[in-house]
Design brief:
The protein has 233 residues and is an alpha+beta fold. The protein has helices at 4-29, 41-47, 85-92, 95-124, 134-160, 164-169, 187-208, 228-232; strands spanning 34-40, 58-63, 67-73, 78-84, 178-185. It has a single domain (4-213), classed as Butyryl-CoA Dehydrogenase, subunit A, domain 3 (Up-down Bundle). Helices cover 56% and strands 15% of the residues. A 5-stranded antiparallel sheet has the order 4-3-2-1-5. Helix 1 packs antiparallel against helix 7, helix 4 packs antiparallel against helix 5 and helix 5 packs antiparallel against helix 7 (187-208). It is elongated, with a radius of gyration of 29 Å. This is Clarin 2.
Amino acid sequence: MPGIWKKIVFSFASVLCITSIILIVVALSTQKWVTGKILCKTGVDLVNASDPELVKFIGDIYFGLFQGGKIRKCGLGSRRSKIYIFPKLVRKLNGGLHVIIILFLFTAIGFASVSLAFCIYNAKKIPYQSIKGPPGLYLWNFIAGLFGVFAIVCFIAAMKRHRLTERVANFKEDIFQFVVLEEDYAFSFWLCVASTATHAANFIVVAMSMIRLPKMQTKKPEEPVVTVEDLLY
């Protein structure tokens, strides 16, 4: 059986793995990977709007990996509409890259689950094979974190190289054309980054399991020494 220190360390490592899985699941299910401002360029050109009037033509957009929404302002007030990435919009985007991002995140969940299982195993038993011990935990956490990094890098590439926000904003817009004024990585994106950071933290936690704490030693009571003089008395 592992000592109390190792039980505490591997239990904390298990909590970090669970946190990583929850963060990715929440990131996948929410709709705030990107938020931004969009300008209705067609409306501005039609009325030849000046700077003070541009506010009437600036709307909002937000979206995640599956859904989103936007508020269109083309001089006739605000109009809300939902955005569904699948099944049609993904064809207008770089569909392969978008699907790869989702697959990377699911793979990260898989390896985080493997890491969780090994953390629980190490908290209960002393492994006889090195791959089941700390070296294995380093490996599974590294792979899970690596796939999380791949997903983040691919999403940034989709944003910067493939003008993801602009394509989403102009989907099914036959009359009006929208220009992206600003775009920011939002709550869901940073959850994915935090998930990757938990695996980096797990490296430190697993390394702490190798620390050997000094054992508390209790002094034994000294046995009385009987001398010849004591026997004479």
